[in-house]
Amino acid sequence: MSRIFFVKNFFDILFGKKYFLRTEDIELLRKINPDTDEKTDRFFKAVSNMTVLGLIATGIPILLYVYGWLHADLRYQKWACWIGMSFVLNLWVTYALKILTHRVRPYIKYPDLNEKALENTPSFPSGHSSVAFQTATAVLLVCPCWQIAIPAYLWASTIAYSRMYLGVHYPTDVLGGIVLGIFSAWVTQLL
């Protein structure tokens, strides 16, 4: 119970009413979350769609495993299992942190924000950003070349930005998701 108390107090210090990150966090979000623009809104809603993100994040290890199985290449099967394990670890830690911190979504706390999407889980950390950066990092660790790194991280960064643009995450939520995603991919590789 003392660990849960420590985590909640840590996040209260960072994001609470009296502390420094709260003001900068919401002011940056207000700059990123513009007035309604239908075409741009549709684009970022499509980018942010978890179904597509989930298909990519789960599809990559499945395709690698099937390829390795069909070609009797254990290396691909090992990579697939490793990427899949990093995805599961990432999801578990993300949702555990959401439950522990229980940070209110910015569009709920600040009605002046342009609410462009609705979410029903706590705000910190951004699960979309976390999964996107976990997937990009895991793929890069399997195939370390700039031809994969640039599009993978551009894709992940676009997803992370979309979460702020839509008003569903603070910048620190997204930053926490990015760090968690990269960390979970690296840690799993070390196992």
Task: Kindly describe this structure.
This protein is mainly α and 191 residues long. The radius of gyration is 18 Å and the shape is elongated. The mean pLDDT is 85. The protein starts with a helix and ends with a helix. Helix content is 77%, strand content 0%. It has a single domain, classed as Vanadium-containing Chloroperoxidase, domain 2 (Orthogonal Bundle), CATH 1.10.606. It has nine helices and no strands. Helix 4 (50-70) packs parallel to helix 7 (127-142) and helix 8 (146-165) runs antiparallel to helix 9 (171-190).
- What is the second-level CATH architecture? Orthogonal Bundle
Secondary-structure-derived class? mainly alpha
Query: Total strand count, please?
Result: 0
The largest pleated sheet is described as: none
Give the tally of structural domains: 1
Q: Report the mean per-residue pLDDT as an integer.
A: 85
As for the CATH topology, it is Vanadium-containing Chloroperoxidase, domain 2
CATH class: Mainly Alpha
Report the order of strands and helices: HHHHHHHHH
Distance between the termini: 28 Å
> Beta-strand level of the residues, as a percent range?
under 5%
